[in-house]
Design a protein that fits this description.
alpha/beta; 2,3-Dihydroxybiphenyl 1,2-Dioxygenase, domain 1
Length: 153
């Protein structure tokens, strides 16, 4: 299976201060961001994204995301191990704008892991039946709907 890390998530007491810091330190560029129901900003760092979440401490939203070329194997593993994370972002299997599927799970230590895969239509029917589009439970503006998880080359 081919995989790569596509983003890192960290907390920020003040989003604008965090954005300015990473822009100056690393040349990060602000990107369009979906509405997740909490203050968040996406930044581009080359082909990787940095996500800043408004928080005073290391919240439950801290996670890392890994791109996978097939979601069925990891989904079945999480299903067998009761590892789905259904609360943090409102559901364990979410469709994002741009035909990307996110699967959220927790490792044995409680760390939040996000697996990302392109192509809703590639999912088996029983898994697709579990999928919830983000816009069905979080209102999205036109800009939110233009957001893309993968930074273009």
């Amino acid at each position: 299976m081919s995989s790569r890390v596509n983003h890192v998530s960290v907390s920020a007491r003040d989003l604008e201060e965090g954005i300015a810091f990473y822009a100056e330190l690393l040349g990060a560029e602000r990107l369009a961001t979906p509405a997740f129901g909490l203050p968040v900003a996406w930044l581009a760092l080359g082909r990787t994204q940095l996500h800043l979440f408004r928080s005073n401490d290391a919240p439950v939203h801290h996670h890392f995301g890994v791109t996978v070329d097939d979601l069925e194997g990891p989904y079945r593993f999480a299903e067998r191990n009761d590892a789905f994370e259904r609360e943090t972002f409102g559901h364990h299997l979410i469709e994002l704008p741009g035909d990307v599927v996110q699967l959220y799970l927790r490792d044995p230590s409680g760390n939040l892991v996000e697996l990302d895969c392109a192509g809703v239509a590639r999912l088996p029917d029983d898994i697709r039946a579990e999928l919830r589009p983000l816009w069905d439970f979080r209102p999205q503006s036109e800009e939110n709907l233009s957001a893309r998880l993968f930074v273009p080359d």
